[in-house]
Amino acid sequence: MNWKGQSLVSVQELSRSDIEALLDTAALMQEDPPAYASLLSRSILATLFFEPSTRTRLSFESAMARLGGHIISAPNASEMSSAVKGETLADTIRMVSGYADVIALRHPRAGASAEAAEVSTVPVLNAGDGTGEHPTQALLDAYAIRRQHGSLDGLTVAALGDLAYGRTIHSLSLLLAKYQGVTLRTVAPRGLELPKDLAAEVRRLGLRLEPADTLVDAVADSDVLYVTRLQKERLPAHLPRAPGLYAVDRAALDALPRHAIILHPLPRVDELPIWVDADPRARYIEQAHGGVYVRMACLAAVLGASL
Ligand code: NCD
Q1: Residue 265 CA: which ligand 1 atom is closest?
Q2: Domain 11-133+291-302 is of which CATH architecture?
Q3: CB of 136 closer than 6 angstroms to any ligand 1 atom
Q4: Whose Cα sits closest to atom 1 in ligand 1?
Q5: What's the whole-number average pLDDT of the chain?
């Protein structure tokens, strides 16, 4: 795929070979960062974040800085941009596309990135749109998995958490569906299961989806345990939001194979106790750090940089 000038709104826009090419580029960049230090020296990234973020915004900005590019940032756009005055997202994006060469957008509304990409004259990278998707997170999840297991084909991934309102698992399940023979075992409290239409879609694409009753059942023979937090800011009022609704426990870690890895998009709250950090299979910090290289690869691709 020639990515130059393209937006990235959904994992659905990427083929398996696009994903592999991006991850290969990220790996090259991680091996030898100085070789890419001025790749985007004439480009400007705008980070426009209408929802809280630590990792996604800072790693996009770090990625741009590591490629020698420039950054303009609205980290608090829901309170500090002209949205407060009533400006529409479309108008804001029309403006920002005149100020920057690429936009990373986070917004509380599913579909906001697609709407932004429609009106933008520069690529829009979806950095999370409500309960919708978070494609660059799925790419960095895949990067962490590939670094451990070499390939995503044939793997079994156990996902624990709020699979309904968490967008990272939405993008990750669509990504896993592009690989051969992948099984996704899901463990979620009632009402927080993978949305039905998404489940149907990933099954149609070839992902083996296996809801499990307990975490111990789910992790047996798994290659990856992927944990997500309760998205309390997005839960409808009738759903439970009590802390401690679910968590990784000793029994699950005992049942998880030795070769497996534990991932989490972060931030964690109480679903991933800090004692898990001492487990050699815990990879979530490394996973987040890899996000810089994956986002470097994305920025270089949509800006058409020749590597
Ligand atoms: C995730 C998000 O914003 O969707 N965070 C991230 O980007 N790493 C996960 C979350 O907030 O739970």
Answers
A1: 8
A2: 3-Layer(aba) Sandwich (3.40)
A3: no
A4: 265
A5: 96
